[in-house]
């Protein structure tokens, strides 16, 4: 088995926690749901998942090739991940409450929302950087194919992300009004996101392979 059960027990709760924190993907689904209805909101979440899986595939191919050619490069990727996660943590604390407001979205069909979701995800370099920062700390080259492990972790992230973003898209009207009225909730979510990123950075920095 390319991934042991203990690693999965650690990764899955972290993935769900990260899926629950508002980001560009969630806000895009929220905007599509408000403008175009539940079907478009859910289709947008599937588009985000498609784009995210393509990011995971590209990251897995690149990292697998890098490790094969230069084994010490894994350490370089690990410390780059630490730096990026710390930057995300600090950025979450500085993020204004208005960032939780849904993005503007033109009314569109479910197919169009799915297609636009793919492009929103693919054209967001933060997604690729985030995958490279998070996933490598759970990948173990000694357990076999790095690419396969990347795809499994990417699939886990996508399952949780699709479920949560899909619910946000389907129930967009009520969620949008709730976020707009509750500055305290917005602040708590920012602090929670920052705590998750700081914790991941510490785990990545001090973990020994």
Summarize the main sheet.
Answer: none
What string, H for helix and E for strand, traces the elements in order?
Answer: HHHHHHHHH
**Beginning-to-end CA distance, first to last residue:** 18 Å
Could you say how many structural domains there are in total?
1
Structural class, from helix and strand content?
mainly alpha
Beta-strand percent range: under 5%
Helix coverage percent:
over 70%
The radius of gyration computed from the alpha-carbon positions, rounded to a whole number of angstroms, is 17 Å
Indicate the mean pLDDT. Answer: 76
**How many strand units?**
0
Total helical elements: 9
Unreliable segments of 5+ consecutive residues: none
Shape: globular
């Amino acid at each position: 088995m390319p991934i042991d059960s203990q690693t999965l027990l650690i990764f899955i709760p972290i993935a769900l926690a990260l899926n629950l924190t508002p980001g560009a993907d969630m806000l895009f689904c929220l905007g599509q749901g408000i403008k175009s209805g539940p079907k478009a909101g859910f289709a947008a979440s599937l588009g985000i998942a498609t784009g995210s899986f393509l990011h995971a595939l590209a990251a897995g191919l690149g990292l697998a090739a890098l490790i094969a050619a230069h084994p010490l490069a894994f350490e370089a990727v690990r410390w780059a991940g630490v730096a990026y996660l710390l930057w995300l943590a600090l950025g979450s604390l500085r993020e204004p409450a208005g960032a939780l407001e849904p993005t503007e979205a033109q009314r569109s069909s479910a197919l169009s929302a799915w297609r636009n979701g793919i492009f929103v995800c693919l054209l967001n370099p933060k997604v690729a950087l985030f995958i490279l920062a998070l996933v490598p700390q759970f990948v173990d080259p000694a357990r076999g194919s790095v690419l396969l492990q990347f795809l499994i972790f990417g699939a886990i992230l996508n399952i949780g992300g699709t479920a949560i973003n899909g619910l946000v898209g389907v129930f967009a009207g009520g969620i949008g009004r709730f976020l707009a009225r509750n500055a305290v909730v917005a602040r708590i979510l920012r602090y929670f996101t920052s705590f998750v990123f700081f914790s991941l950075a510490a785990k990545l920095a001090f973990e020994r392979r």
